[in-house]
Amino acid sequence: MRHKPFCLLVTLFATALPTIGHAAVTQDTFLLGSTADLVQLCTASPSDPMGTAALNFCHGFGVGVFRVLQEIETAEKTHSFCMPDPLPTRNEALASFIQWSKDNPGQLSLPPQDGIEAFLSKQYPCAHRK
Question: Model-level pTM greater than 0.85?
Answer without folding.
Answer: no
